[in-house]
Structure formats: structure tokens, C-alpha cells
Amino acid sequence: MSKNMKDMPIGFFDSGLGGLSVMKKAIEDMPEEEFIYLGDSANAPYGIKENIEIKRLTLKGIEFLIDKGVKAIVVACNTATSVAIEDLRMKYKGIPVIGIEPALKPAVELKRDGKIIIMATNATLKEKKFEKLMGKYAHDNVIVPLPCPGLVEYIENGILEGKEIDYFLRTLLKEHISSKIGAIVLGCTHYPFVKKAISNIVGDEVAIVDGSKGTSRELKRKLMEMDLVSNRISRGNIEIFNTLGKEKIDLSFSLINVK
Ligand code: DGL
User: Fold this and answer.
1) pLDDT digits over 51-79, tens only?
2) Which of 28, 118, 127, 132 could form a disulfide with 82 if both were Cys (CB 3.0 to 4.6 A apart)?
3) CATH 3.30.420.40 fits 104-211, yes or no
4) CB-based pocket (< 6 A), ligand 1
């Protein structure tokens, strides 16, 4: 592999700000890599759209990253992964295309007493990919898929704490807190931004897991396998784009606010 290719950036895509929670982990794990992020906030939320539209928007977003010369793609959106990952892998055969899925396996492996709640978008929960994932673990565990329409909008608007989001989350989780919860899976990359607010409602003893760790690990593994790890010894650049235009969003907050 030429040195040039190795030092090209890694492209991250999400329907909005959520994927930054995944990119943050990848930056921690691979600080010498260069990163380019595209958030499609102008079209968020994806989770309530038809598949055909989610696919169209995702392919368009990824094309933007390809035009920027990325050496790998991370679809840092559970919804876009569920709907478009196969098409993307067919289209971009030469480079790693990494997706994300609800971190049910790590949640099951915690072996906590109580049910496992999977919070995700409607689109993610109704896809075959999710059905397959459930099929692997549902026989030995009590798993409750919980669609959360409306939650992404709060996060896109920067509402991460306070009365309004507390009320929303409490209503969403109301019927589930009466029986024991072992773990909550954040199956949408936006939700780690409100992890603290969720924890305040369900209690600190409930484990809250997301897919950023596994996705970053898979990215690293793929880069090594395809001999694409950067030779850089200093920190790589990070560039963040959003379809709303830079002036509309304080993008720096998003990397800082993921706990
Ligand atoms: N961040 C996306 C995910 O991981 C979905 C948000 C949306 O509905 O746009 O599923």
C-alpha cells in the first residue's frame, strides 16, 4: 500500500450529530489518523423516514466523503447501517466500509439481572438486521426493543439535560422502570449524548452500553488487515462538515459532551 493511501482520512457519516459519539472513540483509539465527518442534520431524523429515502440520503452523504478522498468509511448511524450497508459495500469494494449495530452482545455479556432494553429508531428496530440480532440472544434473555421517536430532535437541538428532556425520557421509560432493568443498549448514535439523563431516571446501577467501542475496534482491525494504518506520528487533522452549514451548529460541543 502506498504511503499516500495510508495517510488519507477516515470518513464518518451520520444523519446528524450522533456519529460524533462514535468518532470521538475512534479519535481516542487512533489519534494519529485523520478524520472527516459529515452530519446530515438538514435531513435528520432519518429514523422515521422510508427506507428508500434513508438509502438515497446515505449514499449521497458517503459520496461526499469519497470525493474528499477517504481511505475508509464508517457509517456511524445504526439507522443508515441497517438500511444501506449492503449497497455501500457493493459500491465501494476497494475500501473498508464499517457499520454500527446495537451493542446487544456486550450488554448480554455483562450478565446483569433484569431485562435488556434496546433504545433505537423505528427504522433500526423494524429492519431484518435487527431481527437477526434479536434471534441470537432473545431465547436466553428478556430483551425489550424500545423505539424512541422524537429523541433525536432534542439532541440535534442541543437539549441534553433539563426538565424537558427528563420529562420526555421519563414518559418513554415509564412502563419499563417498574420491573428490574439489567442494561440499556443505546442503539442510536445520538443517544450517548443523553446517557446521563437516562441514568438519572433508571439509576446508576443499570449498565448503559453503546456501540462506539466495538465500531472503533472493528475499524482498527480492518485498517490493519488492509494495511491502511497511518504512518503519521503526530495527531491527525479532524474536519467536521454538516449539511446545515457550519455557522448553524456549534460542532465543538458535540465532541465534548459525549460522556
Ligand atoms: N444516529 C442515527 C442512529 O444511530 C439515527 C438518528 C436519526 O433518526 O436520524 O440510528
Assistant:
1) 999 999 999 999 999 999 999 999 999 99
2) 127
3) no
4) 14-16, 18, 44-47, 77-79, 121, 124, 152, 188-190
